[in-house]
Each structure stands twice: as C-alpha cells, then as structure tokens.
Amino acid sequence: MVNLSISGKYNEGHGGNAGLADLRIEERLHRYIVGGTDDVELRRRREASERASTGGGANTGETECSHIFEGDTINTNLTAPGATLALGLMYLKTGNRSIAALLALPDTHFLLDY
Questions:
Q1: Rounded to an integer, what distance in angstroms lies between the CA atom of residue 37 and that of residue 90?
Q2: Could you tell me if 44 and 65 are in contact, meaning their C-beta atoms sit under 8 angstroms apart?
Q3: Cα gap 66→75, rounded to integer Å
Q4: Confidence band (pLDDT; 50, 70, 90) for 62?
Q5: pLDDT-based confidence at 67, cuts 50/70/90?
Q6: Is the separation of the CB atoms in 43 and 51 below 8 Å?
Q7: Which residues have a Cβ under 8 Å from the Cβ of 42 and sit 6 or more positions away?
Q8: 3-state SS assignment for residue 29
Q9: Side-chain-facing half-sphere of 39: CA atoms under 13 Å
Q10: Which of the four, 40, 43, 53, 68, has the lowest number of CB atoms within 10 Å?
Q11: pTM of the predicted structure, to 2 decimals
Q12: Which percentage of the chain shows pLDDT scores above 90?
C-alpha cells in the first residue's frame, strides 16, 4: 500500500495520471473494496497447475509460501480498509465525482450491512 499512497501524493490535485492509466488502479482498488473474484489467485493457481503438469517446480528446490487458502473471492475484511484509503488518497482534492460515488457512505441501515 505504500506505493499507492506515494502515487496518491504524486497525483494529489490531479487525479489519474496518463502513465498510471494502463495499470487500472482505480478498477483494482474498487474490486478490493466491494469484493469479487480474485484474478491474481486464479492466475496463480493456473500457473501452478501448468507447472505441475509439465513436471517443473515440484523438485526444483523452490520453497512454497505458506498462506491461507480463502477460495476464489477477495477477502474484503482484509483488503477494503487499505483499498479505500488508497483510493481516497489518490483522488484527494480533485473533486472527481465518479470516484466520490465509489466512496459514498451508505445512507440506510440495510446498506450499512452490505
């Protein structure tokens, strides 16, 4: 998240930057806020299955990272706070209404649960 806050300071008052547009940071951060399918995890599994099918990776001495398997969806309990902060800092003082709509507070008790 440090890199995102640095780009936020760089973009402060300007919003998105043409050099950062191809990274689709806003789209990724929004997915980390609201949840959905984790594309990175799916890609990681596909690459691991390809390595296993070709025989590479298992006996090469690589150490496996020990992480908790959470399925294909993003755990928003972990990602939403940081992504919200990063998106807010990126567009601080820009007046960008589309980003403000993404960060709008819920206005009913029902929406507060979702």
A1: 24
A2: no
A3: 17
A4: low
A5: low
A6: no
A7: 72
A8: helix
A9: 5
A10: 68
A11: 0.59
A12: 10
